[in-house]
Specification:
It is a single chain. The protein is α+β, with helices and mostly antiparallel strands. 37% of the residues lie in helices and 15% in strands. It has a 3-stranded antiparallel sheet. Helix 1 crosses helix 2, helix 2 crosses helix 3 and helix 5 packs across helix 6. The longest helix has 16 residues. It is elongated and about 65 Å long. It starts with 8 loop residues before the first helix and ends in an 8-residue tail after the last strand. 25% of the residues are buried. The model has no long low-confidence stretch (mean pLDDT 90).
């Protein structure tokens, strides 16, 4: 099985790892996924630190290939990790916001913040407000009254949360496309 929608670099690496779970090398992962060697090396390092993979051999010469084995399979979706192997809390927060919007129906930013937060992963009201604003721009959320919102169920594209980019755009990994970009005109330049 593989995940639906867009398959970014880490997802393709993870699928290649799962397919070769007993013995894989960075070279084989590159061949299977088409992802750059540097990205593969960084992700393997995070996976090893997080306890998802372990080394099968030690390299003695520069030409030796490092072999790995998958030891913790978390399923189809790739583990979202920081460089030190810990879960990326920002991505987990975005997933919680996206999932919670669908569950609670109509909401205020304060309500959404409270329902989507956990003691291990508290969310700030500013973070939630920014995400909701971008979801409104992208058409996933509508304002129902002063300070109240709801998700547009017909626009719900799947379980993977739309990503808000730093350059003011929204990318939907379920559709594998940018669904909204802030327009720039000549006055802005």
């Amino acid at each position: 099985m593989e995940s639906a929608g867009g398959r970014g670099s880490f997802q393709r690496i993870w699928e290649a790892i799962r397919a070769r779970r007993e013995d894989f090398t960075p070279f084989l992962l590159h061949s299977d996924s088409g992802v750059a060697a540097g990205t593969i090396g960084n992700y393997l390092s995070a996976l090893r630190r997080g306890g998802y993979i372990e080394r099968l051999n030690q390299r003695h010469k520069a030409a030796d290939q490092q072999h790995f084995k998958l030891v913790k399979d978390c399923g189809i979706e790739y583990p979202r990790l920081n460089a030190n192997g810990t879960p990326n809390l920002r991505e987990l927060g975005t997933e919680a916001i996206w999932r919670t919007m669908r569950i609670i129906g109509e909401f205020s930013v304060r309500e959404l913040t409270n329902f989507a937060s956990t003691p291990e992963r508290p969310l700030s009201q500013d973070t939630v407000k920014l995400y909701v604003r971008h979801m409104v721009h992208a058409g996933y959320v509508v304002r129902t009254s002063a300070g109240r919102y709801r998700i547009v169920l017909a626009k719900y594209s799947g379980p993977r949360p739309p990503v808000v980019g730093k350059a003011s755009y929204v990318y939907d990994p379920n559709l594998d496309k940018v669904v909204w970009e802030e327009s720039v005109n000549h006055v802005d330049l």
